[in-house]
Amino acid sequence: MVRMGPDVPLLNEYKQEFFWKRFPQTVLGGPRFKLGYCAPPYVYVNQAVLFLTPWLFGGVSTLLCQLQLLQELHAAMLSGALMFAAAAAVQAVALYAGRRSGAVERLGAPNTLVDEEEVEFTHCVSPETVRFIAPGKIFGLNVVIHTVLAGLLCAFGTWYVLLGRLTALYGSISVSLVVFVLSWVTVCIAEYSLVVNTATETATFQAQDTYEITPLTRPIYIFIFIVVDLTDRFSGPVPELQLASQVLHVLFLFLPLLWALGILPPLDALFLWGMEQVLVFGLGGSPMSSNFRLLLMFGVSAGVAVCNYFIPSTLGVVLFSTATGFLLSLDLSQVGALCNAPKAHCKDYGPRRGRSPPPPLSNTFGWNLGCREVVMYACLLLAALAEAGLLHHFHSSAQSHSLVRGPQAPVSYLLLVLFSLCWLLREIQGAYVCAGLFLNPVYPKGMSSVQTFEQKNRGLFIAAAIRRVLLYLVSPFALIAFLSMDKSLQQLHGVPLSVGFARAFRVAWQSSEDALLQMVVVVIVRLAAGNNRLPGWDSLGTGVQLLLVGLLMDRLTQFLAKLKFTLTVLVTSWTEKKQRRQSAGTLLALNASLCPLLLAVVTLSALLSAPLLPLFTLPIFLVGFPRPQRSWPGPVGTACPCPDSIFYQQMSGSLASALRTAFARGSLGSLAPGSHFLGRFQDRMVWIMILERGYGYCTVNIKGLELQETSCHTVEARRVDEVFEAAFERPERLGLTQGLNLHWANALTPCTALAVRVYSDARNVLSGIIDSHDNLRKLQDDFLKALVWLLLRYCVKKHKGSMWSCDDGAGIGGRKSQSSQQAQQTACNQPPEAIVVESKVSSLRFRQDSSSMTSFGDWSDEDDLFGPQPARRTVALVTAEAQSGHTVLQTGASLPGSVEMDSLFENMALSALQPLQPLGLGIGMPAVDKGHNTEIFKESPGSLHQLTFSCPQSEVFNLPTGWRTAPMLASRLLHLRPLFPEDWFRFALSRFGPVLQSDTSEDMTKALKEDETLKDLHAQVALSCLVSLGAESAFTSPSYIYRLYCGDVPWSEGLEWLSSSKELYQLALRAFRFSFKLLFDQASLGPMESPEEMFSTLEEYERDWYIGLVSEKGWHDSVLQEKPFLFSLGHDLSMGTYTGRVLSLQEQLVQVGRLNGEGVRGQWANLSWELLYATNDDEERYSIQAHPFMLRNLTVQAADPPLGYPIYSSAPLHFPCL
Ranges for the Pecanex C-terminal domain (predicted)? Predict the structure, then answer.
């Protein structure tokens, strides 16, 4: 991305015109009075008539009621019937017009922006006019529902705003008239949106309205107001209801403004947000990681509260609340894993749910719901029930009015001590203390390695263990003891008290830390009151008091976070030169002069638990509509994958174990659902979001951001590095100024460093290595040595019957390491026939489709100016032909100067592709004379003479018969015989010989080494492979080496023979890649000093390395299987250089910091509004530009698709925290 100046337009000219057409339509509920072209007057008149029709019906009914010709109920029924008939007529006309014009299709691609489509009007009731004004409904059921609802809305709306009712409420005819007129504007807006044409709402939650729910949004809100008014009418004289009705009648006038500003949520968001708020603050639960879990948990929790109300015994209530509170606070998703445990260690958090490798510590306590977990949970439940029952039975009746002298007094002071200790022990676990203001003096400094960090952190480990015991074992029992002895349990049979105690007993387990804080606040209030009674407060009961305190603490926390975000946006809009727009001074002056209004907006958003929306991320603040903590409607785990996604997928398992430890220690602070964290390692950015929280577990979502950084991404990544360096790489002794957090205003606050097994990525330019003539001459000898070693190893493995077991892996990389064998418990027997050079498969298909001699009559973009060119004879082409049985294509020379380039990832984003590989030209390829007899160069397998070995054990090292049939003259191989490394062959044979039988004698080994027939056999095969690869003389150039490394072998006389044996071809290609890796290592570390060193190096390559290409599937699989090392050769076409890439799996420190959650929610709310409503998808828009304080670009990336574009996103992962 190219960074642009701060004065880039917020919306380009086209989008500005589009926005100013759409916004009036949203305000009025659907009428399109502003078009981009000239329309006949009847278009506007028809819309105005339809808009005012409900008002006409309601006005007539109101007039008849005022004249006492109709009663109020009959007047409402009349207006409703008239509106029902009008709505049915509109739907019928729209359906008829749709059928009339359904047979005529518009040519060209459909325009997704319907508002910009120019319509040709013929007359006032033509099908085009009708479809423009009233497009009609998609589903027939919605036609019926919306029509009936329109009649009911008009009927109840007439009843709601009758002048008699308004006069009774306000006692003034003039006020009633004003309210009457403006109220009908609101009703007309809702009716038009429901019946005629639905406007695009500024409060958009779903990207698409599949089931036509949006037309119901405005009528439902009106019905909510009407329900309150009807309750006031038909209930007795309740002053609170009358006051609420008066206020709501005034607020009813401002509904169009609230709809236009997007403050009121759509129905789906309202439903999910309401359930989440009731579940958390009313029933003591937690936000859920999915909509289904939220609905299920809400139903069960509400059922528990209802049961509490009907249980007659207070002891029964205490025991029932304790048991259900504990059980509902556990991770119930593990119950399914427990039921399926006999099948195959199914995990709810591992590969099935998270699609990631299982955590290294997945067999530790809490990862699975096994026998030990069930036993521990059962013991905790029995202990809690025994404590609650005994304390309530013996002490609840002896409760004193004074907390100082009653049975609750010791528990109260214990709670104060527990809270102080838990808070202190949690604070010292992080890099900063006191809300991120000061550096933690006891936190380790200068973390050079994982071992050093763990040694320095040993003292904090002990403190974390003490905190864990106090928080998860002592605190819940102390809270239950306090609640069990509370005197308000005697007055339980009331809805508030039943709900309050059901919540209190559950939150003691669900979130012990928050429950401890809430209980401490209640205790402090009681201690401060002393013997004095607080009538309003004491009558609520402890359960309701805890509910109110919890709600107040949450809203206060949100207010402070939103206020910090507001100040950051305001201050940086002026102090950051690259963010300072021409309007910055004006906006700052307006915010300063309207400071009370600004504080009111922040307060309202905190009270509603709604995001604070900075419009275009400017200091223009609006209240976003309330939505669930997850912020997005879709399921967790959607991403925009690319080849780099595997690195995040690999590290997610180890990161899960590291997060589990950090959560248990408290290093990341309070783990409230909705919290966001950012991890940084080398070029990787990990976004972690807390989805769910319970007793002993936490559910998170891990996202990976793109590795190919844009300029905006780089600017913010550099600032992230600076923030982490200031926290973790500081001097031992700190002064007063050095102890302050100089980046406190930043959205990121460093917390801790986690030890995670990740791949360290090192890239080297091979200039001076791959183009050195000395190295190229050495490459031929190393290739023969590697090939001999692989041939002998092939024989040994074949003798043991495990040649192509899972130990060899898929591809060119060889066996997996022992650690990966332990992590990968399932075997994958893959035959050698399935192992091909993947990077040439698409190339073959392309050539067969567009370059064959039988298809050059077709004209396409791939056609050459001078006519079609025949396919080049590469090893991939020959291999595929031999495998598929197709006839051989005609061969010939390519046009000089032409280059063939294909991509393996044809359907992927260009930014995710590896550099294209130069496949060569194939110039001077000899013609194939099909009449020439080649039998003089080779023997058929049936005519080969039987080999006679001098040693009986040599039969083990015999090679397949087909490998001896190379079409080459014996004199030619005899000429190359001096190249064969005889000494190395004997040495490798002496090392492989004892592997077959442990009791092999020295004489037997000597006989193997002296078997000339065996040596000649291996020399023939090795030299034949050398000639087939075109390296008979030497490897001549870097481009030739790169082609061979990629498997793009030029045509040679032995190519068909080599490719016909897939096993031998794979061994030859693997040997060449091994030899190039030997060249790379020897150029960097020095030459091999002995055969033993060469042998051990090849063993290490086979055991611990994957040597291949980044584009191959084997590379992807090796990363996921956590191969210790990976090597790849690449070509940078832009620079004209060859590069070597080495991945090393090691335990590294990943620095993690907490983000301002309200800042993230606010930016995501603006992103949703800007893309879904304003359709501002410009890649260079202002709101996506780099912002070092808000981390605006990274936050946009981390949003769920289609608005964001993380390259990896895990399914909900459940971490144990005990």
Answer: 1041-1210
